[in-house]
Amino acid sequence: MNEALCWNESFECLLKQGFYVFREIGTSEETLRRLLSKIGVCVNGIFEEAIGLVKFDPCIPTRPNSIAYSASEMRPHTDGTFEQIPPKHILLQCVQSDQYGYGVTTIVDGNTIYDIVSSTTKNPESALFVFSRREKFTNVEVTGSIFFPIEETGGIGIRFRSDTKYSIKPLSPFANHVLNLVQTAVNDIQNSQQVYLRTGDAIWLLNHRVLHGRTALSGLSRRILRRARLN
After folding, report:
1. pTM, 2 dp
2. 3-class DSSP assignment, residue 176
């Protein structure tokens, strides 16, 4: 099968399910950059570089209030919720995996969450929230909706993250009701699927479409991901 056909199939799969897994592509940054060149333009975040490492090392103290750099479970979320325009794509390259069965990637389809919420509540996309990220000397926030229209596809996008650094503040009783429904649906294991990334694998995520997280790490081994943000 030629490269163009393989690429078309991966793109079709991405559009269908919101993510695509590349198996055994290697661990070098050069390999990742070649892949990124076919997808889009890398973009810096307010606090993150366009390409950077997310590393857990049991021999190094973890960053305070940072779930991503700890062994704790990361609940499903989208990246850049507090930014005016969150990145459209996230690529995670597994540079070093944890022991088998730990640090398993969790995927939740935002379309499924929207369907569940909208089946009992009209126009959940009209509910407004303040999305924020707290740092030691900085608090960055933006007002918007958990659900929003995606102009390119005509579908519905999702913006959602709530943990030690990130918060979602509802601006009305209706918004609070929507938030409770979203949290319940996201936390329901029946609405998620799991993908184990081995060393050398990578996963391409539509950040406006799917939420991603991971199960807890073993805490005994290093685990390193290389993360890229793209538009």
Report:
1. 0.93
2. helix
Whether 207 and 80 have beta carbons less than 8 Å apart is answered as yes
For residue 222, what are the contacts with CB-CB under 8 A and spacing of at least 6?
55, 56, 57, 58, 96, 98
Q: Which of 166, 160, 149, 25 is nearest to 94 (CA)?
A: 25
Q: How crowded is residue 189: how many other Cβ atoms within 10 Å of its Cβ?
A: 9
The domains of the chain are located at 3-230
HSE-CB for 60 with a 13 A CA cutoff: 10
Give the CATH class of 3-230. alpha beta
Beta-carbon neighbour count of residue 154 at 10 Å? Answer: 7
65-76 residue pLDDT tens: 688 899 999 999
Segment holding 4, helix H or strand E: helix 3-17
Mean residue pLDDT of the chain comes to 92
pLDDT bucket at 64, cuts 50 / 70 / 90: low
pLDDT for the residue 2: 46
Residue 55 has pLDDT above 50, yes or no: yes
Which residue is associated with the tokens 């325009």?
85
